[in-house]
Design a protein that fits this description.
By secondary structure, the chain is an alpha/beta fold. Helices cover 33% and strands 13% of the residues. It contains 13 helices and nine strands. The chain has an eight-stranded parallel β-barrel, surrounded by six helices. Helix 6 links the parallel strand 5 and strand 6. Helix 5 crosses helix 6 and helix 7 crosses helix 9. The longest helix has 19 residues. The chain is globular and about 60 Å long.
Length: 387
């Protein structure tokens, strides 16, 4: 027989446990927006103030902070106003998540090398360095860990995932109310799966310690003539009734466009994520809003603004972009295969309505698709009529 006092104690423990489990950490929502300082001013255009960010941006993803070998948190060099911009965002009503990590995978490997055997010493010391930064900028809802992709300088690390889980659990124990996500590059995931070079993430091991995954297809295929009207992150072939599979068809919101031969399609990426045991309900696809040029002489970010498609149609005629119907299809894809989507650099999506398609036309077309609506932008919109 259990004593009365023991039963009361057990009851209290269960109540606390249920309460803790029921408290969910901050969410990205269905339609998050990446935000990069005063980039519109840097590109010679009028600035977009924080109140002008679409209300439909359910969270803000803010670039981007690294922690160095001395456990000091640093922003990008030359971005003197970055922290002021962050603090202004934190005073708004948006959930703000920040990109965070070490500069390279090699730096990550040094931190993680012995975490299992050394009682998480490196991770613990890093969290001591991160805490003053978070205390100074209260209100950050989550950390989006990046720069985990292998590169030419990486060496094999058989216990990579086990050590990384120790790191994630240490971060969780120090900042229990914050969400922890991973920003991963879709192209690297396809390459690593197709022809693995070294040991990388085992998602089955790390997933219990991760709240969400942001899979970026901002850079997926190179801009060539084949992708000029298709966009560089096509959804993939939708096999037709005659089983030719030769056109991109409604799978990308476009018709009569030949689907290039490429491994880098959203459909292929989705299948790989399933095989890697990345949960659909934690997956967010990060899409490019602006065009992409194959001209290396152009200043990339400033050249690739949406309004330049319609204001400089001659200069931008070779740029890779896609129709608003295609963006609409990407929203539906994110709904069918994930928890939501993220758009890259909301400020570059014609916020001042230069194209007369309504502010933020690409973002709104994706959102409509996610919500099961055909794009509400007229077919006459200049952005939809490139040829």
């Amino acid at each position: 027989m259990f004593s009365y006092d023991y039963l009361i104690l057990l009851s209290n423990i269960l109540i606390v446990a249920v309460h803790a489990h029921s408290q969910s950490r901050p969410s990205l929502g269905i339609s998050s927006c990446s935000y990069v300082g005063a980039v519109h001013v840097d590109c010679g255009s009028e600035n977009v103030s924080i109140p002008e960010i679409p209300n439909e941006c359910t969270a803000i993803i803010f670039d981007g902070f690294n922690i160095d070998s001395n456990n000091q948190v640093n922003g990008p060099s030359g971005e003197d106003n970055l922290l002021d911009e962050l603090d202004l965002l934190l005073k708004s009503s948006k959930n703000v998540f920040i990109l965070y990590g070490h500069e390279t995978e090699e730096d990550w490997a040094q931190v993680l090398a012995t975490e299992i055997s050394n009682n998480a010493t490196n991770s613990t010391n890093e969290m001591k360095g991160l805490k003053p930064f978070l205390d100074k900028h209260p209100g950050i809802k989550g950390l989006l860990i990046n720069n985990l992709e292998l590169d030419a300088n990486s060496v094999d690390f058989p216990k990579y995932s086990e050590n990384f889980k120790v790191y994630l659990d240490t971060m969780r124990s120090n900042f229990s109310n914050m969400s922890i996500g991973l920003l991963l590059v879709g192209k690297f995931i396809v390459d690593q799966y197709t022809k693995p070079k070294l040991t990388w993430l085992n998602f089955t091991i790390i997933d219990p310690s991760v709240d969400f995954y942001m899979i970026s297809v901002v850079t997926f295929n190179e801009c060539t003539d084949q992708f000029r009207l298709l966009g560089t992150a096509p959804i993939g072939v939708l096999t037709s009734k005659n089983n030719t599979g030769s056109t991109n068809s409604s799978s990308n919101g476009s018709t009569n466009l030949t689907m290039p031969v490429t491994n880098y399609t959203l459909s292929n990426l989705r299948d790989i994520l399933v095989d890697l045991s990345v949960p659909k309900n934690k997956t967010y696809y990060r899409y490019r809003l602006g065009p992409l040029s194959n001209d290396d002489t152009l200043d990339g970010m400033c050249a690739s603004t949406v309004n330049k498609i319609c204001l400089n149609s001659t200069d931008s005629s070779s740029w890779c972009y896609e129709t608003l119907d295609s963006f609409n299809a990407k929203g539906k894809f994110a709904n069918d295969n994930g928890a939501g989507f993220v758009v890259n650099i909301i400020k570059l999506d014609d916020p001042k309505n230069d194209c007369k398609c309504g502010p933020y036309p690409s973002f709104n077309a994706i959102l409509d698709g996610f919500n099961g609506k055909n794009t509400n932008i007229t077919k006459e919109c200049a952005l939809s009529n490139r040829s």
